Amino acid sequence: MLDPAKGDCIVKEVDRLKIILADSSVAPQDKVEPLKFLVHFIGDAHQPLHTVLDAKGGLGITVSFFTDPYRKQTGPTNLHVVWDTGLIRAKYWDWGAYVDYLETKWLPAQNIAAIQSGTLIAWIADTHKLANEIVEANVKDGDSLVEDYFERASPALDDQLGKAGLRLAGILDTVFAEK
User: Fold this and answer.
1) Is this model's pTM higher than 0.85 or not?
2) Dihedral of CA 166/171/173/176: which sign?
């Protein structure tokens, strides 16, 4: 896990996890936890509110957002939760249906090589820029984030989740490549 003496940040930890996963002397069962953390950290690097400290990454911004799959009812939550799960559930209540959507509608229009290029630092910088432009733009404590916000945020959500999946796949292809 994170070791401040080696650099206490997600970038350094992802580098350490990739080394463990690529090491053929590490038993497969000892790679399960590092793999789970790698998946988690790549996902976190693409969740915009994980890249900002403002209002505790959105945890400190109380908003109202959809609570049902048909977007007819709203309830209190915070901006961070809206981006962690709320937008996904409002778009597709069934997570598998959302994956199907990304594979059939989003993915065909993408340049996979371009998305997988770059560094984790660059990916996080892009996510941070998105946080400042879209996620936090004009969202204030007490706001009701309904259809307008959902419609504006959905393309960014698709991009971030799709990019995270493609980039994770690229990392895993490299880590587990035949030596």
Assistant:
1) yes
2) negative
